[in-house]
Amino acid sequence: MKSLLLVAHGSRLVSSNDAIKQLTSKLRSRLNTSGFDGVEYAFLELTEPSIPDGISSLVKEGATEVVILPYFLAPGTHVVDDVPELIAQAEKDYPNVQFRVMTHLGAVDGIIDLILSTADATA
């Protein structure tokens, strides 16, 4: 079973965290055409669920492969160090689960087209 974990920073602002929950809900509604069987969100800090909790939830649902999307625009310390360290621990905790970390959102192919088309639509 292939699952997606959307990893965001986390915020003291409830509305910011709620935006991640809403995005996850939208992703969940499109799972039947995505190639994924499950999707969860997790936060690096400041709120719950934590990344280990998000992974645990997916594994309990039967995930045998977890794809992690670092929902960050730039490759800062969290992307370069923190997320990989947490995933390395998950690999030890769940040796029968395959983990793949995607590039951070800001480096995803198509981001330039998305920015330009969105900017053009609002201009």
Automatic annotation (TrEMBL):
Keywords noted in UniProt: Lyase, Metal-binding
MF terms in GO: lyase activity; metal ion binding
InterPro entries, alphabetized: CbiX-like (IPR002762), Sirohydro_Cobaltochel/CbiX (IPR050963)
Classification via Pfam families: CbiX (PF01903)
Lineage: Bacteria, Pseudomonadati, Pseudomonadota, Gammaproteobacteria, Thiotrichales
Name by which UniProt lists this protein: Cobalamin biosynthesis protein CbiX
Keyword flag Transit peptide: no
